[in-house]
Amino acid sequence: MRIAFISDIHSNIHAFEKVLEELEKENVDKIYCCGDIVGYNAFPSECIKLVKEKIDGSVMGNHDYATLTGETGWFNEYGVEGISYTRKVISDEDMNFLKSLKTHIYLNVDDLKIYITHGSPRDEIFEYVFPDSSDDFLLVLADIAKADVLVFGHTHLPMERRIKRKIFLNPGSVGQPRDGNPKASFLIFDTRSKEACFKRIEYDIDDAAKAIIDNGLPRFLAQRLYLGI
Description:
Layout: E1 2-6, H1 13-26, E2 30-33, H2 44-54, E3 57-58, H3 62-69, H4 77-89, H5 92-100, E4 104-109, E5 112-117, H6 135-145, E6 149-151, E7 158-163, E8 166-171, E9 184-190, E10 196-201, H7 205-214, H8 219-227
Parallel strand pairs: 1-2, 2-3, 5-6, 6-8
Antiparallel strand pairs: 1-9, 4-5, 7-8, 9-10
């Protein structure tokens, strides 16, 4: 099975639509999202609608959680403004969808146990698992998850680590990459070959940035899209 993993869409409909167009060409079997459908960008409702229509499953990210609860104490000022905007513009139906998201998803495919979350098995919404995390730390997470393949979001950084037959993946961010590359990021994982193929796709950053500014969101959120930070 060829499974596409995406993450951290962050209300960037321009990037999300381009990623979905590319995945149509790739003819993948399933698409899963590692959380943070909303936040930062200007189109939360539109992104929720597409997730409901096109994605086979999504977990809850910290921005999804903050939108539900209004709790933003751990965010910087840009995150707070993004959450405030999202809470103003989305519908009750959108809120109910976010509320329905689980903190993790388990898949059993081709004798592989695959665990999907936003943060980590230890703290599924908030903990960061960075690409340079120690082998020992990652193996602890694999033991907690009882999985062969662990797929995270949250950092906005593409990641592939292989330790003692365990595979650790992060598709990077669709809507706000932070690895210095502004192109939307995602990955396709082949459960038979166990190969992960990372993809980058250009999208209309000008329109996404203009929408951020036109909707009164911080200008910095528009600027960072061009820089991939």
